[in-house]
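Today's session is about reading a structure prediction critically. Students often jump straight to the picture, but the first step is always the sequence itself: look for stretches that repeat, for charged clusters, for runs of hydrophobic residues. Only then move on to the predicted structure, which in these notes is written as discrete structure tokens rather than atom positions. Here is the chain we will use throughout the hour.
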Amino acid sequence: MKTSPLLHPAALLTIALLACTGGAQAQASRKTAKPAELPPLTESQIATAQNVLTGEIDCEGGKKLSLNAIDGKPGYFAMKLGKQSWTLAPQDTTTGAVRLEDKKAGMVWIQIPAKSMLMNAKKGQREVDNCTAAAQRTTS
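Below is the predicted structure for this chain, in token form.
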């Protein structure tokens, strides 16, 4: 009777890790391939969206961000700052300020007539301040 050679324990561990990693990578790619579902917005949120200033926006410290409407998703906006990006939806306010939020990420965009700012509500700090779109620079 012929005996099969035994694998070294390190080789078994490597095979097990490769199998686990491959499964995790396949699962992760399935998750990222699925488009994000965005809930419908209320009429007041859609009305607020009409007041959002979009385009390339200059901020303090030479930082620039972009804020643009998402095609096919009325009222939703895509914001990019450096390599970070968020999907923002209008929120109702009593102050007259425009407020956009990505609740999951904790990001809040506040727009008033003279300037705008991006806040990280989870950290409790401003990410960028003194941001101005072209229309805000002409009114001040």
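Discussion point for the tutorial: Residues 95 and 112 are 10 Å apart (CA to CA).
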